[in-house]
Automatic annotation (TrEMBL):
GO terms for biological process: protein folding. It comes from Geotrypetes seraphini (Gaboon caecilian). Pfam families: Phosducin. Residues 47-249 form the Phosducin domain. The keyword Disulfide bond does not apply. PANTHER family: PHOSDUCIN-LIKE PROTEIN 2, VIRAL IAP-ASSOCIATED FACTOR HOMOLOG. InterPro entries: Phosducin-like_chap/apop_reg, Phosducin_thioredoxin-like_dom, Thioredoxin-like_sf. Residues 1-25 are annotated as: Disordered. Belongs to the phosducin family. The gene is PDCL2. Residues 63-90 form a coiled coil. This is Phosducin-like protein 2 isoform X2. Transmembrane segments: none annotated. Signal peptide: none annotated. Keywords: Coiled coil.
Amino acid sequence: MNLQRAFPVQQERHSSPEDPNEDTEWNDILRDFGILPPKEEPKDDLEEMALQMQKEAAVKPYERMTLKDLKEAEDDLDEEDERAIEQYRQQRIQELKSLQRRQTFGELTEIISDQYVKEVTNAGEDVWVVLHLYSSSIPVCMQLNHHLSLLARKFPETKFLMAIATNCIKNYPDKCLPTLFVYKNGQIKGQFIGIVECGGTNLKLEELEWTLSEVGAIKSDLEENPKKEIIDMMTSSIRNSSIHLEDDDSHCSFQH
């Protein structure tokens, strides 16, 4: 059928371009003859809601579960889901541990000898502990306490402790101060005894941060040692074995 003959008036009236989605009699005629595609029907709110629910259903259900829910749902999961859920569970556990540490630490805390086992040995699984034995009469010790206090705020997942040396170890010699011990899971991971090993009298905050990050006690964003020219005596003094006490006061050592 010739469209021009059938509808001469309409064609003359609509010589200008038309919006194909406009709801007009002329567009309806063009659709009837296949010249325009069918008009798209607008989606109502109910349809939009249904589409959104379909998208949400595509998300793995375990991503919205608590640890308790994950445990209860194990019997209904296939092998692939079990692997994914175990990975997600471990991620959630680590997130919770990290949150608990941030809420627990964050400052340099003073302890006495009787608190050693609780605060150091039983500090918690995978918790790093930095213990400073000091004397208030030694300026370097007080400078170190100041640096440690700042680092405790910057790295709240690490426990920073200080203790007066002679309150923890009877007759502990001043020449061995300051003394820094680094622990993890109750085991000594590093020790720095005396002024030289602790960075010297002009120790900078960044240098102490670098040293503790080298041991593993903190996760620093420093990319290199801020004091390259000095022999890294502190990191070379890291010892993996336990520290043994000797009766001779000329030795600086510590154990509980």
